[in-house]
Amino acid sequence: MKNNEERLYDLEDLLDAAAGDKVFIGKMIGNFIAETGIVLQKISILRVGGDYAGIKAVLHKIKPTMKVMGIATVVGIIEEIEEMNLLAMNESRFSELFLKMEKTLTLVNEELGKLKSISG
Amino acid sequence: MFPEKYYRNDTLFPNQDIMDSFSIFIVEDDQFYGDYLNHFLSSNPDYKIAQFSLGKDFIDKLHEKPDVVTLDYSLPDMTGAVVLKRIRQMSPETQVIIVSGQKDVTTALDLIKEGAYDYIVKDQDTRSRLWNVILRIRENRTLKNQVERLQEEVVHKYDFEKTIIGNSQAIRDIYSLIEKASKTNINVSITGETGTGKEVVAKAIHYNSVRRRKPFVAVNMTAFPKDLLESELFGYEKGAFTGAFTRKTGKFEEANQGTLFLDEIGDMDFALQAKLLRVIQEREVVRIGGKDTIPLDLKIIVATHRDLKAEVAKGTFREDLFFRLLGLPILLPPLRDRSNDILILAKHFAEVFCKENNMPAVGFSTEASEKLLRYPYPGNIRELKAIIDLAVVMSNGKVLAQDDIIFSQMAQPTDFLSAKEMTLAEYDRIIIKSYLEKYNDDMVLVADKLKVGKSTLYRMKQRKLI
Question: Which of B152, B216, B292, B305 has its CA 20 to 30 A from that of B414?
Answer without folding.
Answer: B305
